[in-house]
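Feature request, filed as a ticket because there's no other form

It would be nice if the structure record came with a short human-readable summary line next to the tokens. Right now we just get the raw output. Example of a typical job, pasted below so the devs can see what we mean:
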Amino acid sequence: MSDATVDPEDQKLITLARSARARNGASEGAAVRDEMGRTYVAGPVALESLNLSALQTAVAMAVASGAASLEAAVVVTAEETAADRDRAAVRDLGGPDTPVILAAPDGKVRSTVTAG
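Raw output as currently delivered:
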């Protein structure tokens, strides 16, 4: 998938995830869009008693805000693939067909997979 083929709503998620990453100086940033079009943006949580990836945190924020499902998810990271734990969190709320977009820190889309 090239940046030219990214849906404008998904591009918004990429921009939001990049801003979360930059704002917090974190290794990753994430954003999700729920069934109502609301967006949730997060970075990772690393506490002694709680350790969540950025995407897990964004999904948790959506759940805590009453989202019933997800339309799409984005993680911006230097990693080459979307982590299984991230895809599982998206799948739990959005179902197996929910797209998970992996973007590089510069915002270029590396891949799109389903939460599967």
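Something like this underneath would help us a lot:
The chain has three helices and seven strands.
The helical segments are 8-24, 54-64, 84-94.
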